[in-house]
């Protein structure tokens, strides 16, 4: 696991912790990295398996476990889990996994909706663009230009270059989950930016294939 911090306060009592409560106390009160690593080693395999039962992807399950432990380390000075450590960790894994699944469902729903609209536009044909369509094209360009640089790059790699999330993750050296999160936020931003048009798209669906336009950006 990546060391969350290079410099860690050490407890003057170097004897091994005798219980999980002692591990927690040492992490909280002394920033004891060895106690933190003991907890990680003791629970990693079981927590990874539990996370995998939700997301069915090894890398995603690993990301979930590391997220939980990185959050614990970042907030270690206030860390005082109620009940047993086992119950706390498994509950944290469950909540993180469910949150990610809900987010993925929202992203998928948004992608499906946008894809449907663009598919309808692609299937239509016209010989000329009217003023409203030209303004819509400009607005799409503005919306994409306003995305944060990395989010815009991920969006273009997916929509223009046709790379999969896994290919983008490998190309940019980031996790697949990060790619999915950034794509979801990009689509959400574009939907909000184009909200006035989305309400009337069924009316202007005979215009021109904006999907092709997006792929050229």
TrEMBL record:
- RNA polymerase sigma factor 70 region 4 type domain: which residues? 139-190
Give the species: Fodinibius roseus
Keywords attached to this Swiss-Prot or TrEMBL record, sorted alphabetically, are:
Coiled coil, Sigma factor, Transcription, Transcription regulation
Residue ranges of the region described as Disordered: 1-24
UniProt-listed PANTHER family:
RNA POLYMERASE ECF-TYPE SIGMA FACTO, RNA POLYMERASE SIGMA-70 FACTOR ECF SUBFAMILY
Which GO biological process categories is it annotated with? DNA-templated transcription initiation
Coiled-coil annotated residue ranges, if any: 119-146
The UniProt family comment states: Belongs to the sigma-70 factor family. ECF subfamily.
GO terms (molecular function) for this protein are:
DNA binding; sigma factor activity
Compositionally biased intervals (Basic and acidic residues):
1-12
| A UniProt-annotated Pfam family | Sigma70_r4_2
- Which SUPFAM superfamilies does the protein's record reference? Sigma2 domain of RNA polymerase sigma factors, Sigma3 and sigma4 domains of RNA polymerase sigma factors
Question: Is Transcription regulation included in the keywords of this UniProt record?
Answer: yes
Q: Which residues form the RNA polymerase sigma-70 region domain?
A: 39-105
Which top-level group of life is the source organism from? Bacteria
Return the InterPro entries for the record: RNA_pol_sigma-70-like (IPR039425), RNA_pol_sigma-70_dom (IPR014284), RNA_pol_sigma70_bacteroid (IPR014327), RNA_pol_sigma70_r2 (IPR007627), RNA_pol_sigma70_r4_t2 (IPR013249), RNA_pol_sigma_r2 (IPR013325), RNA_pol_sigma_r3/r4-like (IPR013324), WH-like_DNA-bd_sf (IPR036388)
Q: What is this protein called?
A: RNA polymerase sigma-70 factor, ECF subfamily
């Amino acid at each position: 696991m990546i060391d969350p911090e290079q410099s860690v306060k050490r407890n003057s009592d170097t004897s091994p912790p005798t219980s999980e409560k002692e591990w927690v106390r040492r992490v909280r009160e002394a920033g004891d990295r060895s106690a933190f690593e003991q907890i990680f080693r003791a629970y990693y395999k079981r927590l990874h398996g539990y996370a995998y039962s939700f997301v069915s992807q090894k890398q995603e399950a690993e990301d979930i476990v590391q997220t939980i432990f990185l959050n614990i380390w970042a907030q270690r000075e206030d860390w005082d889990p109620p009940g047993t450590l086992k119950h706390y960790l498994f509950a944290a894994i469950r909540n993180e996994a469910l949150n990610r699944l809900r987010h993925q469902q929202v992203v998928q729903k948004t992608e499906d909706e946008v894809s449907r609209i663009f598919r309808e536009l692609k299937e239509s044909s016209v010989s000329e663009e009217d003023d409203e369509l030209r303004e819509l094209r400009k607005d799409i360009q503005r919306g994409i230009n306003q995305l944060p640089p990395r989010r815009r790059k991920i969006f273009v790699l997916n929509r223009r270059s046709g790379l999969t999330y896994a290919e983008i993750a490998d190309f940019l050296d980031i996790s697949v989950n990060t790619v999915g999160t950034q794509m979801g936020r990009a689509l959400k931003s574009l939907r909000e930016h184009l909200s006035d048009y989305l309400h009337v798209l069924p009316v202007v669906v005979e215009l021109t294939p904006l999907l092709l336009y997006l792929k050229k950006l």
